[in-house]
Amino acid sequence: MPELVYGVWDGVAVDAHNRPAGIAMDALDVFDTDNPIAVLLSDRGFLVFDPQVSLLWVLQKHCMKVASESCGKCSPCRTGAPLLCNALQKAMTATHFDGWDEVREIAQQMVETSLCGVGKTGPIPLLAAITHFPEKLVAAPDLKHGFFSTMTSPCIEACPGLVNIPRYIDYIKDGHADLSANVVLRHYPFVGSCGRVCVRTCESKCKRAQVDAPVSIRNLKRFAADAALASGVVTPFSVDCSRPERIAIIGAGPVGITCAYHLLRRGYGVDIFEAKDEAGGMIRYGIPIYRLPKDTLGEEVGIVTKMGAKISYNQKLGRDFGIDDLFAKGYAAVFLACGCPKGSYLGMEGEDTSLPDYENGIDFLERVYEGVKAGASPVLTGDVVIVGGGNVAMDCCRAAKRLATGTVHLIYRRTEADAPADAEEISAAKAEGVQFHFLCGQKALQTDKGKITGLAVVAMAQTEPDASGRRGVTPIPGTESVIPCSHVIAAIGQMTDKAMLTEKDGIARDRKQCVLVNAAQETNREGVFAAGDCTAGPRAKGPTTLIMGMGQAYFAARSIDRYLSHGEVSFDSRWRMSELIKDAHLMDEDECVSQKVPTKRVDVHELAPAERAQSFDEVEQTMTQEEAWKEASRCMRCYRIYSVVTAKHIPGGE
Amino acid sequence: MKAYINNREYDFEEGESILACARRNNVFIPSLCRFEPLNHAPGTCRVCLVKVCDAKGSRIVTSCDTPLCEGMRVDTFSKEVRDMQRMQVEMILADHHQDCAACSRHGDCELQDLAEAVGLTRNRFANILQKPAAGRPVDESANAMLRDMTKCIRCLRCVTVCRDIQGVAALTVDGKGLGSHIGIGMAPNHQSSACIQCGQCTLVCPTGALAERDQNDMVLDYLSNPEVTTVFSFAPSVRVLMGDEFGFAPGTNVEGKIVAALRMIGADVVIDTDFAADVTIMEEGTELLGRVTKGGVLPMFTSCCPAWINFAEKHIPAILPHISTTRSPQGILGALAKSYLPEKMGLDPKRVINISIMPCIAKKDEAARPQLARDGVRDIDVVISVREFSRLLRRLGVDLAAIPPEPFDNPFMSASTGAAVIFGTTGGVMEAAIRTVYAVVNNRELAGIETTPLRGLEGVRTARLDMGEKLGTVEVAVCHGLRNARILAEEVLAGKSPYTFIEVMACPGGCIDGGGSCRIKGGYHPAKAQKQQSLFTMDRQMVYRQSHNNPQVKALYADYLGAPNAEKAHHLLHTHYTDRKDFQHVTIEENMRKLTLTE
To answer: Minimal Cα–Cα distance from A162 to chain B, Å?
Structure first.
């Protein structure tokens, strides 16, 4: 455990004996390899581990970060932060500095009266130092320590892609939908797709919920995409390949395309090999058209082809080529993004996967997509039962509702609150008329002469919470019943296609056949990187969300670039900062926001349930410009700045 | 629900902000960015600080965005609160370009008022920050206005008026930190931007960051040049606006005093834009009849308002064929004062300099249109707004209140009618047109000439009018505020408009609240009803109330033009429009460089 020499945390002076409450000190030993953290500064105070570092220098660096991040709209932060920088610069060089009262006054004014988190929290370490350790604020030479600083917020840290959410919301409010889209385009090209289907972990951490309701972040992103990309204001550009290397990407799903996008931006040539005859992967085949129109997806895939990526269709890894073949063709690196294209079955009594009316969710959604595209939607005659509680189950039941002649049921063995599906998806499915049965487990598939006649189910009861606080479920004996039906869809999960990789490829996998990767998205084989559903690594294991996959793809592209430029991948300081915030519990989860006059969250227009259950037209409409301005102004910009000072230089730092 | 402000009990409604409750009860809390008439409270100035005490303890908050709660105690002027309010103003001034003496808001600045309100006696942070205005543009490219962002205090009122009232949304927030300022979208400069130069933003800007282009020195140059003949004219609404800056009650008619003042400062010829308004009706009314009877493009929109024309050209060019080709009164006056008037008065047309006084700043941009020039010579040489004209009179020591009125006396272009007078208010052009069109079609005057359903200040007003046997019932609409104009225009483009004739005035209320009218601190067109009524009263008092009865107009057609829309009239008095919609593209990579992100 690192030795805490002194500091202030949540307004309390701390040291080796009185350690700050609530944070995991163990996590604060090194920032990168062999590089101990000397000082940490945040919205809650500062901690000094190495007394050799000049506190004044550190505070000045932190204030400079505040000044450089100030948006400039509110006066205390706009002019206060540069005034503090000025004063601290003077204090560092003056033989006698007598301006501390004024520095304290400015800092106090910023903290108490600024509009957003930057000004409200930026000067807190400085104020804490003036209050508790004025004797440490003496001019001392800079000993060439490493410095790295990040401005983030609860929503950003909740986003697996670390997208700067308040910034893109602000750009909408400021009248720059084009720049708003570009903030997202720094991370991935699927702005409009993610703006429609993201699981929005950000909204669950939005502090606005304390005032009224979370900001409608996803819909704002979609607005930016529609206003800037779909409208043609922001256009792709063709890239001159400044690098001699070409990279092979396996899979033209969102992860493969996103990695290609970042590699193209860095000047690499990219060839994408796709097993199917269209690009888009799971968001093309797995997400129904009423949630994500495929012209939107097509335009976003088009960004990389316009940038110069070549996509070869019907080229399947393991069938048409192997990893060795790619290196033999001269590719400098290979990126695996082959996804989890196989649906799982239930493994229950009476199950027969050869029955045409018993299918898994992935196959069902693909069949629906192909049917709708061909203008001949499949018809489900009779009643349908979908088993599962995730978003795929919701997609299946809502798609089935549009196709079935009878009733559509969904059974899930846990409670509605435990269902991993987005609550809005559940309520949309209910509105469309899907019959939900929670705490209801499947027991057996009942058939007669090769035709499904029903699904035997049993009521479940919740067990007492286990050590982790999660409650299990157990069948209640004697509650068995049968839901008569002619179709059953198992929507409980998906798997990799085991045939894609063989021993000969030399890629290490886990027992679920997911490719093992490290934090840099490297596999065990040199030059081979992987991300998305087909991988198991520190960020996620197996099938994951669109935004997580694209976040991984960003890091993978970065690693590939570093591998090809420097022969090794190095760590990412921004990512490391997030890890540190999480591991050391630096962000106060229970933090209260100041009271604001409530404003209603903007509801986007939707097709009426009766109308939409008859068609695959897009259900949710985009916000109007006026609504987008209004919704964007609800964001409170809960920014805060974390800075670390380390013994040695930090890669990517100052 | 009850709360206490400075120990006095007040009722409030759930969700009401402290500042709103205080204002409602006449408790003063200094503030700058808040602008009540537009319900604008962005919380950027942070001056409206108060100390509150409730169940969560006591703390300093901004009163504009903090709701009251039951039993809350609010302190608005203890020493602690006053010190922090004062410091906030010092911080605002730390990056404000304080060249007060040379500022368009000299003596009329809300920031100066604020400094007084918080008791500022020293300015600790002035001149400390190096290059505080770096990255903030001073853009002088626009014909009508100046954008001096070194004086911007980021209250964002201009953005709100541009979006909510005008539906133009040309203004954006750009830059960050000390460089943050109001931008003009993706355009390279103001003149080429989506801004239509209506000037409504200049009416709400608390400082001199957004202002009219002051052209008084050009006027003085012409006045002091013996080689030229200066011809001054002023718009219908100007006579009820000029009193504002000289202590008259809102809406007072000071027409005679303006005429006298112009003569005092050396105007060679004083004529009336009212005369040209009557000619406009002759031309536009005839054009409308032509479109109705010959199957032309309908509905037809009015063309008097230059901000509306800019809006149509820059934002909805598909509507242009629907806009009357008749020049605005200023455009008509300009053409006639450089052709008909010199001929009648024996002047050298090359030496005539037309100077118009307008309630509007977009008229400056209109006067610069190539369509309003002949052989490279502009029909209107200088346009000054009511604000500039007031400033000019002050500069020359002329007090409008102190001088006796004088009548117009030009025998060719100064006669007016009631129809021309009401051009100054929303609905007036429509009403004037109805009077004349009816008379032309039916060979008799319309009986009840005051079209009540079209009067008032509702954003959109409509009427079904009985226009006599030949035309039958005609549906018309008038609107003001371009947000409303966009709605009506989009209805037309969607083929769903029931109207035959639509009047548009860009500014709310019409010219009486034009972007060149007097600024009223903290208010947004507070006296528009009085000004409108004043014009209606003048209409009732006129000898002639229909444009076609203006004797000088009759003489113009008899002696010079022939008939409305005839060849000479068409040549001199009509114009055309161009699609100026600028669709800006940017590549993903170019935009990456514009992002203000540090990592």
So the answer is: 12
Write down the ipTM of this complex: 0.94
Q: What are phi and psi of B447, to 5 degrees?
A: -70, -65
**CB nearest B597 (choices: A167, A594, A595):** A167
Considering only CB atoms, which chain B residues are within 8 Å of A632? none
Distance from CA of A310 to the nearest CA of B (A): 19
pLDDT at B599 over 70: no
Of A79, A234, A626, the CB nearest to B125: A79
A407 and A281 in one domain?
no
Question: Which pLDDT score is estimated for A176?
Answer: 97
Cis peptide before B526 (omega within 30 of 0): no
Using a CB–CB cutoff of 8 Å, tell me whether A112 touches chain B.
yes
The position carrying tokens 């999480």 is A582
Contact A70 B45 (CB under 8 A): no
Residues of A in Cβ contact (< 8 Å) with B88: 75-76, 109, 113
CB count within 10 Å of CB B191 equals 18
Q: Cα(B400)–Cα(B448) distance, rounded to whole angstroms?
A: 36
pLDDT tens per residue across span B219-265? 999 999 999 999 999 999 999 999 999 999 999 999 999 999 999 99
d(CA A369, CA A441): 28
For chain A, positions 578-617, list CB contacts with chain B under 8 A: 594-598
Share of chain B above pLDDT 70, in %: 100
Segment A366-394 shows an average pLDDT of 93
Contact A74 B44 (CB under 8 A): yes
**Which of A78, A86, A106 lies at the smallest CB-CB distance from B177?**
A78
pLDDT in tens, A88-99: 999 998 888 999
**A185 and A214 assigned to the same domain:** yes
A185 — contact with chain B (CB < 8 Å)? yes
Inter-chain residue contact A71 with B43, CB threshold 8 Å: no
List the beta strands (DSSP E) in B288-443. Answer: 300-301, 352-358, 373-374, 377-378, 382-385
CB atoms within 10 A of CB A599: 15
Assess contact for A131 and A6: CB atoms under 8 A: no
What would the two tokens of residue A388 be?
């599962």
Contact status of A629 with chain B (Cβ, < 8 Å): yes
Residue A158, CB-side half-sphere exposure with 13 Å CA sphere: 18
A 218-257: CB under 8 A from B = 232-237
- Tell me the per-residue pLDDT of A277-331, one tens digit each, with 9 for 90 and over: 999 999 999 999 999 999 999 999 999 999 999 999 999 999 999 999 999 999 9
In a domain, A39, yes or no: yes
Do residues A348 and A280 both lie within one domain? no
CA B71 centroid distance within chain: 45
| Model pLDDT for residues A98-151, shown as the tens digit of each residue | 999 999 999 999 999 999 999 999 999 999 999 999 999 988 776 678 999 999
Is the torsion defined by CA of B384, B389, B390, B395 positive or negative?
Answer: positive
Give residue A275's domain range: 246-341+496-577
A350 bridge partner residues: none
Give the CATH number for residue A472.
3.50.50.60
**CA end-to-end distance (rounded Å), chain B:** 48
* Tokens of residue B23, six digits: 């204002």
Does B186 sit within 8 Å of A234, measured CB to CB? Answer: no
DSSP reduced 3-state for A192: helix
The nearest alpha carbon in chain B to A118 belongs to B177
Whether residue A51 sits in one domain with residue A14? yes
Report the number of distinct structural domains present in chain A: 4
* Distance (Å) from the alpha carbon of B495 to chain A's nearest alpha carbon: 22
Peptide bond into B299 cis (omega under 30): yes
Is residue B189 scored above 90 in pLDDT? yes
- Indicate the fold that domain B228-573 takes in CATH: Fe-only Hydrogenase (Larger Subunit); Chain L, domain 3 (3.40.950)
